[in-house]
Amino acid sequence: MVVCQSSTTDRRASRFDLDGSGRPATWDSFGIWDNRIDEPILLPPSIKYGKPIPKVSLSKVGCASHIGKRKENEDRFDYAQLTDDVLYFAVYDGHGGVAVADFCNKYMQKYIREFLAEERNMEIALFKAFVEIEKAYERHAHLSADDTVPDQQL
User: Fold this and answer.
1) In sequence order, what DSSP letters do the residues of the chain get, joined into one string?
2) Are 104 and 68 within 8 A, CB to CB?
3) What is the pTM of this model?
4) Which distant-in-sequence residues (6+ apart) come within 8 Å of 124 by Cβ?
5) Is the CB of residue 73 less than 8 Å from the CB of residue 67?
6) pLDDT digits over 22-49, tens only?
7) Among 106, 89, 103, which residue's Cα sits nearest to residue 137?
């Protein structure tokens, strides 16, 4: 067993306390981002995954999209805080049409929330959400192509 000792008089800088001040390291401290972003590092998940993970405030999140040569911008984006520990960031590229991008932008967050409520494993929750939204879009596209069936809510 290894015992680590520390002394208040002998402070050493660590990966998460670079200057020995006791303040949490920020992204800028790691030389990754410039000093416009000052977000604290979430220490337990950072240690678990072996890389710094920030606590990001959605008030500091933004987006940009470039229309390119198209007449309309077909990209869609969304972001939200799904749980205390999970932020949702999504970019949907229209790839020459907006139908799927619009559909995913409207419903993906709902599916992910539903599966996160019943499944703690993020990978499984996301897999289930992607499978479910694909099925939902297939139903939606089939119903939209049939003029005799009125639009239905998902």
Assistant:
1) -------SSS---BTTBTTSSSPPPBTGGGTSS-TT---BB-HHHHHHHTS--B---GGG-------TTSSS---EEEEEE-SSS-EEEEEE--TT-SHHHHHHHHHHHHHHHHHHHH---HHHHHHHHHHHHHHHHHHHHHHHH-TTSPP---
2) no
3) 0.60
4) 115
5) yes
6) 666 555 555 554 444 466 676 777 777 7
7) 103
Beta partners for residue 81, in sequence order: 87
Q: What are the residues facing 17 on neighbouring strands?
A: 14
CA distance 9 to 91: 49
Structure token digits, residue 7: 């002394």
Question: What is the Cα–Cα distance from 59 to 52, expressed in whole angstroms?
Answer: 20
Tokens 């949702």, residue?
88
